[in-house]
Design goal:
Blueprint lengths: L10 E6 L10 H9 L2 E4 L16 E4 L11 H13 L3 E6 L9 H10 L4 E4 L4 H8 L13 E5 L13 H6 L3 E5 L5 H10 L7 E6 L7 E6 L3 H4 L7 E5 L11 H8 L1
Parallel strand pairs: 1-4, 1-5, 2-3, 2-4, 6-7
Antiparallel strand pairs: 7-10, 8-9, 8-10
Helix pairs in contact: 2-3
This protein binds S-adenosylmethionine.
Length: about 260
């Protein structure tokens, strides 16, 4: 089954929405949105993509706002299954790629348990796209041969934090931190304590790909101060490639590189 195969009634399709600009969605993702009978939409999904939905399509806002209104995951799973069992073509529109800190697999498993067929349309994750929209390549020949993507939603040392910050400080790869802007000072301090140089370039990109994208840069020792006050969504890049950061609106970068 190709990614452009028409959606079947009674199925759920997970669509990667990319970082916010609908122009960064895949062709297959757009085709799925156009066919959907019902769409369940996250707050970081590209709201502009809803203009492609059929006028009679039902759009359900199932946002999980950090420290705000939230739709429990169990409720989202239940809605996916209920609508699919009613014979509808269900599209689950997510921000970025649903399999990168996106709970996509939880939804696939919930549907599988209920006997509902699913299809996953992968796409553009903010982990790579948001740095790129700020001019930062996560790898660059001769500088860095890899990148590590981690979640900073809990600070280092928190009982539920599973990250090994000593290993991250020593990895020699670009570090890309999602969901970490609120914990940035603890994260930077922990990396410094484990030997990462205070002079390491760093950048924080908030609302990447949106007209109000903000890029702040500093060395690791100062990045938390420089980025203070930035609100999510934001991606932090730590490593030599962060020195390529360009504080240019994303739309201009996209146009220039076409
Ligand atoms: C729950 S995670 C979901 C990630 C998503 N599945 C992906 O692949 O991009 C949400 C985090 O992604 C990052 N993010 C998503 N969209 C972003 C954007 N447009 N600008 C900056 N960061 C973004 C932020 O770190 C945000 O807190």
């Amino acid at each position: 089954m190709g990614t452009l195969t028409p959606l079947r009634p009674g199925t759920v399709t997970l669509v990667a929405g990319g970082p916010g600009d609908p122009g960064l969605m895949t062709v297959a993702g757009r085709a799925a949105v156009e066919q959907a009978d019902v769409l369940l939409v996250d707050h970081l999904a590209p709201q502009g993509a809803l203009a492609w939905a059929r006028p009679d399509a039902e759009v359900l806002d199932v946002a999980k706002l950090p420290r705000g209104r939230t739709t429990p995951q169990e409720r989202i799973n239940e809605l996916l299954v209920t609508h699919a069992r009613a014979g509808r073509r269900v599209v689950r529109l997510k921000g970025g790629d649903g399999f990168v800190f996106g709970r996509g697999m939880e939804e696939v498993l919930a549907c599988a348990e209920a006997g509902v067929p699913t299809r996953v349309l992968p796409g553009v994750s903010s982990a790579v796209a948001v740095p790129a929209l700020a001019g930062i390549p996560v790898t660059h020949r001769g500088i860095v041969h890899g990148f590590s993507v981690v979640s900073g939603h809990v600070p280092p040392g928190h009982p539920t934090c599973t990250l090994d910050y000593a290993a991250l400080a020593a990895t020699g790869t670009t570090l890309v931190v999602l969901m970490g802007v609120a914990n940035l000072s603890c994260i930077a301090a922990e990396l410094l304590a484990h030997g990462l140089s205070p002079e390491t370039p760093a950048a924080v990109i908030a609302r990447g790909g949106h007209p109000d994208q903000v890029v702040r840069t500093a060395c690791l020792a100062r990045i938390a101060d420089v980025a203070a006050g930035l609100a999510p969504p934001a991606v932090t890049v730590i490593g030599d490639v962060a020195r390529f950061a360009v504080p240019t609106p994303a739309t201009e970068l996209v146009e220039e590189t076409r």
